[in-house]
Amino acid sequence: MREQRVQHYFGLDIGSGSVRCVVGMIESPETGILSVIGHGRAANTGMRKGVVVRIDEVTEAVVQALTEAERVSGVPVHRATVNINGSQVIGMNSRGVIAISAGNREISADDRLRVEEAATIVKLPPNREIIQVFAKNYRLDGQGSIKDPVGMQGVRLEVDTHIVTAATPTLRNLDLVLEKSGVQANHHTVSSLAAAEAVLTRQQKESGTVLLDIGSGTTNLVVLEEGEVQHVAVLPIGGNNITNDLAIGLKTDLDVAELVKIQHGGLSAHAKTGPLSVLVNKNRHQFDAEEVHMIIEARVEELLEYVDKELKKIQRSRKLPGGVAIVGGTAKLPGIADFAK
Length: 341
Hints:
Blueprint: E1 8-14, E2 18-26, E3 34-43, E4 47-48, E5 51-52, H1 55-73, E6 79-84, E7 90-99, H2 109-119, E8 128-140, E9 143-146, E10 156-167, H3 168-181, E11 184-190, H4 191-199, H5 202-207, E12 209-214, E13 219-225, E14 228-235, H6 239-249, H7 254-264, E15 275-280, E16 283-288, H8 289-313, E17 324-327, H9 336-340
Parallel strand pairs: 1-6, 6-11, 12-17
Antiparallel strand pairs: 1-2, 2-3, 4-5, 7-10, 8-9, 8-10, 12-13, 13-14, 15-16
Helix pairs in contact: 1-3, 6-7, 6-8
């Protein structure tokens, strides 16, 4: 009996605070369920706000994460889907139009690819390039809201798309890191899109939901409605900003501020009261809980105001029945869901 070849899938998330690698495999083709068989993590000190600033340090972090994932899974990693980050990631809307060639006028899969390709013919600055294209809906001879036109008949096919672009220098630096790490990028994606696939239900994607991936250096935002990506943005605020504010406000070191945030951070009803303390290098540091709470609340409020500005750009502020899904390291902050409401 011929042995079936197992297919493995590799993901690499190069974040501002850490690099994570995950290895997955399909257990059986019948179910199509993906199982995680290995993962690795390494602290990353070579990035700022999602952009590579020290190539060697990022390379070292990627190699560590890859090595750990390979050791756990027993599978070598040569290619992976790689996340792009940073405020230079920008989404834009575009429309493509094609004529259907003479014949039976039936829309083929090739026609669908052609019209999506036509939508990518947009004027971009010389230092930007397209990383992903999402078809929102198709229009055939004036009839709109078509999800898949293949098999239908018509003479003029249009598509509304959302195109995600990134700065070319950022992509080249990331490719250089991957080259030094001995791994190739299958394709690039934005972390919020990967998170949306992992955590949102079909109903949330249909009704309209915004997903926030709050990392250490940036916050990734994606709006999904009618099952399609409507808007993508990356905001230059993350968990590190809360730590920096605490360090300044409490007049203490960054490592102490980080521990205060992790051990005692909270919003509104979940915030602690009275004096609180942390132990760092055998030294105990004491702070006022109300002051800690006030500093954290001010920064999270600013972040959510930025999110609301993005939603206002696409007329979706307070108009998403699916609400907000919050993921990422800062999502662990107690009370953040109630505070966002």
